[in-house]
Amino acid sequence: MHNKVMAVFVLLVSSGQAIALDCGDKTNSCKIETGEYHIVIPDDWQGGPAVMHLHGYGGTGEKIVGNTAFVEEFTKRGYAFIAPTALPWLDGKPTDWSVRDGWNTYPRSDVRFLREVLADAALHAGVNVGRVLLTGFSRGGSMAWEVACNAPDLALGYAPASGGFWLPATEDCLKPVHLLHTHGFADKVVPLEGRAIHSEEFDVTITQADIWQGLSMWRQENKCPPNAAHHEMTEGLWRKRWNCEYGSLEIILHDGGHGYPKGWSSIALDWFESLEN
Fold this sequence. Notes:
Number of domains: 1
Low-confidence stretches: 1-15
Helix content: 25-40%
Mean pLDDT: 92
Number of strands: 14
Strand order of the largest sheet: 1-2-4-3-7-8-9-14-13-12
Structural class: alpha/beta
Radius of gyration: 18 Å
Shape: globular
């Protein structure tokens, strides 16, 4: 599959013609065996890097690409923007990602699904699978942490926001990664210290893990010293970066709640592009 994808990509680029897609716009999703996704490509696109963004609980890829201003922050920098859609976690329930949290009703392996989305986007849109930034917000941010841990080769870099591991606590991942995590200091939906959520309907409790505990695990995985090497506090942002033997690790805290800080997309892309320099 990889050789076939690359052959198509080389053919498209060498032709000098922009790539046109017949699916993926705001209303017409691209459908594959395991699900569907939306994709927006830059003007005169001839193939290149991509941002894959995972929506929050109850969301869809269609809603994400409907936020034109958000998407254009990436496409104007030359990135294809891919927005996969999660499945309902149970018939009649909202969409959700298959995050490891002790709840076992998820209908598919989302790691497999995301791999197949990238393969399809590479084949039909010339996405360079070696230059992918995986982002996600809230529950989508948690899924980004899961992918980084259990399928670290899926993306070159991971930039989740407002979501991390859930309990049972993750103690070991497959290998180091490049991770930039963003979180609101006043987030009450996904507090930095975590929280328990109880379902009266199913009489079950699932628990968001402590973000700091998750970062501690990543410091061990990336072989980072306990203390951050770089601190920066500017315009409502507090950044900590560790100098690690493998991969990289950074956290950005902002003075808001469950959301992004102003300029987040540019910050994430600047960080991602620094990985290739």
